[in-house]
Amino acid sequence: MSSLDHFVRGLPKAELHVHIEGTLEPELMFELAERNGVRLPYSSVDDVRAAYSFTDLQSFLDIYYAGASVLCEQQDFDDLMTAYLHRAHADGVRRAEIMFDPQTHLERGVDFDAFMPGFLGAIERAEAELGISCGLIMSFLRHMPVESAIETFAESAPYHDVLLAVGLDSSEIDHPPADFLPVFELARRHQLHTVAHAGEEGPPEYVWAALDVLRVERIDHGVKAEPDAELVARLATDQMPLTMCPLSNVALGGFARLEDHNLKRMMDRGVKVTINSDDPAYFGGYVGDNYVQTAEALGLTRDDLVTLAANSIEASFAPDEAKAAWLDELRTVPVV
Ligand code: ADE
Ligand code: ZN
Question: How far is the first Cα of the chain from the last one, in angstroms, to the nearest whole number?
Fold first, then answer.
């Protein structure tokens, strides 16, 4: 392990933008396909990895939703969550706020009483055994109508008190945030936090709408805000967290190379940036890899990396006392 690797993994941090369905490694995909009698259009694990060559968000989402079809029983969701939480813990994650896509499962006849007990069982064990702290973000698919999101929210009622937040994901272009205001209002009335993907592929106007119409507390990605100086200034003034995912952006064509990523430029303009993995099984790295590769590509200093880890803790929805304890721990990490 290089000294940068070692330093990054030793930083207490929060991961705030990871889709649990995007942590499905090809090996587990095959195992679950066999267990559940699901036919996959791949002949081997290598064949799956070879199919992971994306041109844009939609080309990824098509493969990602097809992969999720192997997730059927409570145990499958438990296995998936357990595997992710062990990897996150090994990367120094103290707090994970994890997105899941209920509509992807409901559409296939897999209901809340299968996936929620699976997620919650894995989380309870990991919290006890690893000391990691977790929250769940129920994300609505924006390629589906808002009525479906509202219906999904109603179906999730037995689990409202174990949810942390709601989010908005899937195909961004032509699906503006404002369409989802009714379900975000509903979630807020139930005391849930709110986040939304905006400015991943979509224009700065979608980031404005996520801020001013949906009134979210964090923006997922936000990289397309950069050309709008007024918007960047607003993000900085409000200290609105951006949950960036550099390896994802490069894999989906948002930046030609990691060296071109705007993470450091946005930090330098005062924006509260965080580093996350998005769909690590598909984009070549978990959160630690995202820190290390971005640091190498953009020449981030040790101080920049500490700032990014501190931002992630501050931007989390964890209780204040827990955040203070992780920040204290972060301050004691030797800068080598
Ligand atoms: N769902 C899973 N990954 C996503 C991403 N990168 N953007 C939008 N929706 C997603
Ligand atoms: Zn995402």
Answer: 14
